[in-house]
Amino acid sequence: MARTRSTKSTAPKKQPADAPPPEPISQYTLESRQGPPQHVFILPKAATSEARVVTLPHPRSGRPSRYLFCPKSGIYEFTKFSAPKHAPKSWLIEPRPGSDENVLDGEKGPPRTEVISNGAMYVATRIDPLFLVLPALVDVKIDKKSDEKKRLFLCSDDHFDKLPQQDSHFSDMLRCDAIRTLIESRMEVICDTVDAGDEKMFRLSEKKLLTTIIEKAKQMGEGGLPPSMEEKFVTKALEAPVLLSRNVAMPSQPQSKAEDAADSGHSTPGKESSTSLTTPVTESDSSLESHASTAATSFVDEADGVDIASAALQASPDVIALQRLRVAFDFLCSRYIPSAAAELLRTQLTQVEESSVDFAPLEKYMASLAERRAEAVAASSVANYSSKRPRDEEQDELRQEKKRKLEEEKKRKANQSRGVRDLKKVNTSGMMKLSHFFKAK
Length: 441
What we know:
alpha+beta, three-stranded antiparallel β-sheet, 13 strands, 441 residues, five-stranded mixed β-sheet, 13 helices, N-terminal domain of TfIIb
């Protein structure tokens, strides 16, 4: 019988501990999409199927920007909302049941779902057409100090020709009679007009423009600004610090001295001298006032000291309304109006005869608020100075010298060789030094 040679079974190789885990097998495979990346848009219900995305010059910067143009409902701008970069998001899109988008080419099958890796969202909101034509109406070359009316009455087409024509669909948009009528009607709000035959001529009126922007700012602030703007530019800007003062009562005269004074026939009233410590706190920290007597760091007993909080400034409703109006006005100027015209409008806003809005109560409150904040800063600096021992120049020089020596010692040790460092670890107790053998006998 032939003998066979048996071989040992080889054990499976062990994977290293730091090897990455195997990738899980997905049940569904996503097909790669060809073409430009998709985006999510939220369009108004008033927009019809004839609406198109067009490119128009931005009223503030003049750069080409995207807008939604609908021949029936008007013009809309896009506002982008995106997730922060440290928390990327994506969209999972599925059509509504029963919609035409759910069936592809008349075939029945699973719903048509899509995944959009870009988590941004674009919301279409209505924009006033007068902002789009305002750069053509404003002549930035005119001196702002000149009272002469150098602007000329021009027809609407002459004004439209001043707008940038490169990468712009403005001329194509004007072919729609409804949009042309809408734009010219909005131009009449901010322009002086004259009739030249069958054609109407326009010239920008700075007073009408200022009145229109103020009305828009009032409408924006009537129901309150957005929470982020309200908190940062209204609430925080008008919030006043609260000065918390502590009056420490000194002990009165001893009873024996009072009796001696009574025997001599002269009555001396007990005088109490007090020292005041002022600490600035904000209105949100005013609740700490009731707990000041029980604080662990209190040096004065409740019977000996009294906390007095000076009355904080409170903005009246009129002051708050004026602040909202100013914030909304600045927002409109910084977003929709050219820089030269925006600067002129801000200057005219402070003039009562031009804007018909008196900002004197707001200016008075802001001046008082600046004084109160300066007092709070001064009180805070005094409190910090009294809590720390002042250092003189000699102490600073000693500290610098000590620091320099430590750095030199550290540098010298770093330059030593390894052999020298190892010799320092040898126990040399009981050994004679090398200089002992070279002494004179």
